[in-house]
Amino acid sequence: MNKLFKPLWTLILIACNFLPCEVCFAQPKEITPKEIVSYAGHTDAVKCVAFSPDGKLIASGGADNLLRVWEPRTGKNVFIGVSHKAPIWGVAFSPNGKIIASASDDMTVQIWDASNGKPVKVLKGHQRSVGDVNFSPDGKLLVSASNDYTIKIWNTTTWEAVGQMPEHRNWVSTAMFSPDGKNILTASYDFWIRIIDVNNGMVLKTWKAHTDWATAAVYSPDGKKIASSGGDRLVKLWEASTGKELFTFEGHADIVRSVAYSPDGKSIASGSGGDNAVRIWNPETGKEIVYLKGHSQEIIQVAYSPDGKLIASAGSDSIVKIWNIEPLFKKP
User: Fold this and answer.
1) DSSP at 32
2) In the predicted model, what is the mean pLDDT of residues 163-189?
3) What residue ranges in 200-329 does DSSP mark as E strands?
4) Torsion angle of the four alpha carbons 258, 260, 266, 272, in this order, in degrees rounded to the nearest 10
């Protein structure tokens, strides 16, 4: 080795011992995640998808009005729920994996037994379409978001509504609990994000997140950051405590319908139309890691498996694809 470069090379090697591996050995885009399942059980656009807490099942809902539960690594059907009268826009497993909640254009939230697909309860109260549903971390509460501009909180023991939060000025696209269960994060087609106190319903923080619809928002696993997606083709990262913008992720060709945070907090996934792609971003650098192509129409929702090794993407092409992203984060 040239004497001039030997000291420099030594310094680089020393630095790599202290820096994260991606700093010195950035994964190239050629390391493409493998598509392991292309699930074609739905007969119309798939609007939502969620993994069970143990990662062994997936629930998906579609414009065919069906809730389908199946195995993500094989595509094998487990059961089909047929009670909704209109498209299903949201789906979630309870933290213990025993219950599934689904939200629909029929203005209801339906509760299902996750072991056999039997209907447990129909929750009524919203005046228009229900587009999102999520459980609290302890499983004691359920929150639903609606096109009637409101969110409702439900007691999962009695299934009674126990709260209705302040109205947005348009469709509420997202409602989810913070990781500590104390707050609820909402995003709306009125372009704004809100953080609401669960106990008293007070708006703790609110800001204009996008210049077009705020289509989705999600907390980081530690609750310190919020990622959002919008009709302005952007994904944004915010500091949860202040609403300060940290990064703007650019690359999608059309409205970004969905955004998800990996369980380890090391990546963010988003899905859109136009490019019909899933893009994976580094929340520490603001850079794109890789994009996934395979759908023939827009992607409506993306979700990580609990172990972070898989991503599910639900598309208007009636397909759910399962991608193995583990190779992206392996050390060389």
Assistant:
1) P
2) 94
3) 203-208, 214-219, 225-230, 235-239, 245-249, 256-261, 268-272, 277-281, 288-293, 299-304, 310-315, 320-324
4) -20
Give the residue from 293, 247, 248 showing the smallest Cα distance to 272. 293
Domains of the chain: 37-329 (2.130.10.10)
Q: How many CB atoms lie within 10 A of CB 220?
A: 18
How far, in Å, CA of 222 to CA of 179, rounded?
Answer: 7
In the chain, the largest separation of any two C-alpha atoms, in whole Å, equals 76
SS3 letters for 127-165? CCCEEEEEECCCCCEEEEEECCCCEEEEECCCCCEEEEC
Token pair belonging to 39: 């699930």
How many CB atoms sit inside 10 A of residue 245's CB?
Answer: 13
Distance separating the N- and C-terminal Cα atoms of the chain: 23
Neighbour count for residue 305 (Cβ, 10 Å): 22
* Location of structure tokens 């106990």: 199
For the stretch 229-282, pLDDT in tens is: 999 999 999 999 999 999 999 999 999 999 999 999 999 999 999 899 999 999
